[in-house]
Amino acid sequence: MNPKGRPLGRTLLFGFIIFPLLVTQLYPLIWLLLYSLKSNEEIFSGKILALPKEFRFENYVLAVSSGHYIQYLINSIIVTGITLLLLIFLSTSAAYVISRFRFKYSKILLLIFLMGMMLPMQSALLPLMILLKNLGLLNTYLALILPYTAFSMPISIFILSNFMRSIPRELEESAIIDGAGPIRIFWSLILPISRPAITTISILAFISAWNEYIVAATFISSEKLKTLPFGAYSFVSQYAVNYGAIGAYLILAALPMVIIYSILSERITKGMVEGAVKG
Amino acid sequence: MKLTPTVLLFFLLPPLLFYLTFVFIPILLSFSTALLDWNGIAQPKWNGLKNYSDLLFHDPLFWITVKRNVVFALFSMSEIPIAFLLAAVLSRYFKNGQRIVAALFFPVILSVVVVGQLWKTIYNPLSRGGLLNHILSLLHLEHLTRAWLADPKVAMYALYLVALWQYLGYHVLIQFTGIQNIPREFQEAATIDGANGYQVIRNIIFPLTMPFFKISFVLAFIGSLQAFDLIMVMTGGGPAHATEVMSTYMYNMSFDSQRYGYGSAIASLLVLFSLLATLILNAFFGRIERRYDLH
Amino acid sequence: MKRARPFRLLLSLFLVGLLLSVSACGSSSGVTADQNKGDKDNGTKVTLVFQNIYPDASATNHKVMKKIVSDYMDAHPNVKIELDSLNIDQQKTKLKTQAASNQLPDIFVVNPSAQMKPYVDAGLLAPLNDMLEQNNLKQTFQPGILDYYTFGGNVYALPDGNNIGVMYYNKKIFDEVGVKPPKDFNELLDVVKKVKNAGYIPVVIAEKETWTGSFLFMNIVLRTNGGPGFLQDVLDGKKTFEDPAFIEAVDKFEQLVETGAFQDGATSYEYVEAESLFHSGQAAMYYMGTWATGGMETATIKDQVGVFPFPLVDGKGSLNHFMLAPGSAFAISANSKHLAEAKDFLNYFMLQWPKINFDMKAAVGLAQNVDGDFQKAGYSQISIDVLDLFKTVQGGDLAFDNTMEPDTAQVHLKAIQKLFIQKEPPEVIAKEHQDAFNRNYRK
């Protein structure tokens, strides 16, 4: 049906439900912008809507210079990028087996994967440290990439396998009749259809890897390998915290995330239209 | 399809081995410290099951934290139907629904430091100009104003609310993904048959997105069992344990009280409870799916 | 069961993998670290990892550290010092994980007394006695300060600071209300009432971080006990927490809370958040360690800050006794592969520490003697006042969590936090303490 069919209802919906929600969910962005230009005393004045007395752009200068922004940004991009590639490769194939093949242990297998979802990776710091030490990987990019990928797998496999299970069997059967094997079915049928779910798991994994700090702080010691959260937390000293600079840093750190997200969401919308045309 | 050795080798073995090495085994190993009396530094002493018996039978605080986690989970799950309706409306009536979903998702990507500070400002006592108290006093409800995070009777609920706000967009995103998965023709066919918006949602979208309800419910449950950062930033589990949940209790025991073994015992029970909850949710949704005759 | 076969294969692979990794983990504890692979590429080049808690590159402590480190590297081209600067929570987590997996960095930070004892007991720290003799480093430290880092006759760590607990106050508010710095607890209660009536916060406290309330509370104990040593007496079995001095302290503390001394919702305030209330002139008093002096210099009220020692309690105690806060301290890993180089560097570092700090106007509250005229060097009035107060110190007590083991300390910290939200009979609080103490010390 044509979505423009009922303009009045749509306007009411937007005006009374969606718009107020957007305000409450997006207000923090404005708040954070103001925050990043304030001093500690202004931030804690308790006034939620107040403008800064003077715009302290030096917070941004501090964020870039003292917080090693450029270097940490590059490291974050490397770590998060490889994590995502590895994650998509590993979790789509695992989800494919779990959801599209009938075998006795598929439930148990899923459960084993799910167990990893129950605990944050921070609680496995010590065994991970020993493992990485024995592999000689401490203080390398891989010391972050491997745990980030592995600990994002459970939730990704969970979402993907549920998604893939809902793909109609007829599609697969007609492909088999055409002579396609499991690898080709995976590559040219399951993967393209699963694009929305892959996007979703990428977003979730991206956020957790981009913001992760405790594991990074424990496994990385060299300045040249540190990631963005080190920069934000560098303004937290024992008895002094520069909240304005943290705000500025968080904005700078979120910027690439927002850009990537808007590109990605563009692509999903496109993917949906394509799917509709093909279908 | 039938499972063949090729499929096993190409598709299952790499992720499984990777996962077992970096997640499964480390977690199991970290549980083994639950059997120790260990401060994390000195030579550990064997403690048998004493940590578990203390935890289960002699530590009333532990059960309070469990109860809070369950309530937390119920709160978190209560917003999923709302998220579903929003997602359905956005996908059906709005051409740029994707963008609105992205905007609603925004609080999820915010660092917990910022979220915590924002809400602390909102919850501030009246004397410090807190927004919530200010609104209450404008509505002549002065008797309701209080220091929301320092009052043990309400502090926990104040935290639940922040989590609800922050994760609404998360569930909208998941539900939206599910709805996108429904072939357009289904909706169109229904509309030609004369079904209205409500009927389309009720009879087509709802049953077909059941797997995504399951995802949302499981994630909400596990997410609230793991709730940690936000509580640490906003109250640190205080005042006097009033907002302590299992994960903060585990952390405080392991790192502040330096009772590693005890902390690990809490962690292993946390996993056990999560697993149980997931199984229950799975069974529950399995029954619904069968009722709607899916698969 | 044809289908099951691949799975049996998988299961056995899994079991083999499990065994392998478990045995790998098991053997690891015996093997010493073979990190620092970078060392080899430059012949004799030595890399020292220096883990520290000065993460903010724009803060003075970081600048001082950076200056000394780069000076040292200029003079010793064969040594590379890698700074691993972390904020304190992460550093604690990291250090514990490293200690448990035998991966300690060459130089790192520990806390005095009870908090560093487990590391000493586990043999993880290198004794520094020989190194203290070189270049007369030992003589730069204030008398007695190294005792808090000494176990069995060996010094294991060198402190970056030494502070005392004081009451900062806002002179303008005191003048406006017409009160003077109180000498006795009853006067303090009186000041609290008057300040509160005038619409200011009497005392700010950051009770989300439970140690702040404990720090103030233990100062009351230091008075009601008539002098230092209460916790030590408990440890030695000479007293219990049900001693009248402790009961009275709880009672006095509850009076403070009841009079409305602290800001609303104090238990959700973080350190900087609370401090900013004092900095912006909304609060009359602020009880804190003297490390807070530096922050006053950039505050709105910088010219109105005064300082006084915590008052006597019903005439008990002495104004020359303070809560003592010997600072976090630098230690060297006993397993460091470059022990000699690490000691040489730390020796240089500590010798330079007071000088460079003085130059950068950050020499208030150091653990070492400082040569130089603070007045002439342009230190602010509040810094001079604090330094004068230092000269009156004749002993005192360490914070609770520096004296007792962690589990007892946590029970104490939470019990004091509870006093902010509800009144409890002092006897109940005392018993709670004693039970925790018995549980942990009389096993």
Strand order in space, largest sheet of chain B:
1-2
C-alpha-based Rg of chain A, rounded: 23 Å
Uncertain segments of chain B of ≥5 residues (pLDDT<50)?
none
SSE string of chain B, helix = H, strand = E?
A: HEEHHHHHHHHHHHHHH
Reading the helices and strands of chain A in chain order gives HHHHHHHHHHHHH
Percentage of helical residues of chain A? over 70%
Helix content of chain B: over 70%
| Strand content bin of chain B | under 5%
In percent terms, what proportion of residues of chain A is strand?
under 5%
CATH structural class of the domain at 68-233 in chain A: Mainly Alpha
Overall form of chain A: globular
Tally of DSSP helical segments of chain B: 15
Tally of strands of chain B = 2
CATH topology of chain B: MetI-like fold
Extended strand count of chain A: 0
What oligomeric state best describes the polypeptide chains here? heterotrimer
CATH topology of the domain at 68-233 in chain A: MetI-like fold
Q: What class would the helix/strand composition of chain A place it in?
A: mainly alpha
Characterization of the model:
Helices cover 73% and strands 0% of the residues of chain A. By secondary structure, chain A is mainly alpha-helical. The longest helix of chain A is centred in the C-terminal third of the chain and has 36 residues, at 243-278. Chain B has one domain: MetI-like (MetI-like fold, Orthogonal Bundle), CATH 1.10.3720. Chain B has a two-stranded antiparallel ribbon. In chain B, a hairpin with a 7-residue loop joins strand 1 and strand 2. The radius of gyration of chain B is 23 Å and the shape is flat. By secondary structure, chain C is α/β, with parallel strands linked by helices. Chain C folds into two domains: 37-161 and 327-359, D-Maltodextrin-Binding Protein, domain 2; 163-325 and 385-441, 3-Layer(aba) Sandwich (D-Maltodextrin-Binding Protein, domain 2), CATH 3.40.190.10. Chain C contains 18 helices and 13 strands. The radius of gyration of chain C is 25 Å and the shape is globular. Chains A and B meet through helix 1, helix 4, helix 5, helix 6 and helix 7 of A and helix 1, helix 4, helix 5, helix 6 and helix 7 of B.
